[in-house]
Design brief:
The protein is of the alpha/beta class. The chain has 13 helices and 10 strands. Helix 6 packs parallel to helix 12 and helix 12 packs across helix 13.
């Protein structure tokens, strides 16, 4: 996680922002559409960074023949054939790869998904999870449709145990009040209905905008909430400038105590159960630095 100082814009930034918003849980989870066949696919196309990383975790890297331009983890995935973006994949490139399984999140354009079905491609789509539990469910389902069901359950179980350990370690600690900023124009924050809320809650803190109906709030409202800690998700905005912008408000506890942290969107916005657990531990260490020092 790049922690510095420790559920429309351009085409590229738009794609990044949509991926962030979805990963934060503004799209509710639902049951995946079933594949036509689920037994040991040999040629898999992934239309989601989180799916791609999950496939590698499940030992299916040799079976991944196509990914999106945003699939950058693990680094080996960058060498796979690119089939377009998350939202607008190239059907021509996908068909050319002759996949026996295509995995997508519901960020992908619905018309493109329908065309894949019409072409007879073996397609499974997942709704973006907006909780850690939903994230684990999707991971296990990926394992089911790829013949790695038991392995996916085992890995999800390990991640759940790590998350539970963080929750236990922070359960009796004082809960700092946290603001998670995920946009600047407009100013946008995490509420209880988004994925980032699990990170804050599980790490032993309180989301100051947990009661907000919408994440679209003004900076003035954020100042009034007076958070003890501010996390700025980097997701394409100039995070350093945002951090400097906060410095003007010296009465805010987070500013006064120099507790403004930058979080790389790649780490927290398209997680697998494993990367969620890892990022959760890092966030908990920032929220409870004295406790973290005691464990070292």
């Amino acid at each position: 996680m790049n922690l510095s100082f420790s559920k429309k814009m351009t085409t590229t930034l738009t794609a990044v922002l949509v991926m962030v918003v979805a990963a934060l849980g503004l799209v509710h989870a639902a049951s995946p559409q079933r594949a036509q066949k689920t037994v040991n696919p040999q040629r898999i196309v992934s239309l989601s960074p989180a799916v791609t990383e999950s496939l590698y975790l499940l030992g299916l890297e040799k079976n991944v023949v196509g990914v999106t331009t945003y699939c950058s983890r693990p680094k080996e995935a960058k060498t796979r054939e690119k089939v377009g973006t998350i939202m607008e994949p190239s059907l021509e490139r996908i068909v050319k790869l002759q996949p026996d399984l295509v995995l997508a999140m519901d960020l992908t354009d619905r018309k493109s998904l329908q065309k894949m079905k019409d072409l007879g491609l073996n397609l499974v789509t997942f709704a973006i999870p907006y909780t850690f539990e939903g994230l684990c469910d999707v991971f296990v389902e990926i394992g089911r449709v790829t013949g790695k069901f038991e392995e996916s359950k085992r890995l999800a179980g390990i991640a759940k145990a790590k998350v539970a350990a963080v929750q236990k370690a922070t359960a009796r600690l004082q809960r700092p009040r946290v603001l998670v900023q995920i946009g600047s124009k407009p100013f946008y924050v995490a509420t209880k209905d988004v994925f980032m809320d699990d990170y804050i809650d599980f790490a032993g803190a309180t989301n100051v905008f947990r009661d907000a109906v919408s994440g679209s709030v003004g900076r003035e409202a954020a100042i009034v909430r007076n958070p003890d800690v501010i996390f700025i998700v980097t997701m394409g905005l100039n995070a350093q400038n945002e951090r400097l912008a906060w410095k003007k408000f010296s009465t805010v506890n987070a500013v006064k105590n120099n507790r403004i942290y930058l979080i790389d969107s790649d780490d927290v916005c398209s997680p697998t159960p494993q990367s969620f657990a890892r990022s959760l531990g890092e966030i908990a260490a920032l929220l409870h630095p004295d406790e973290a020092k005691g464990r070292k």
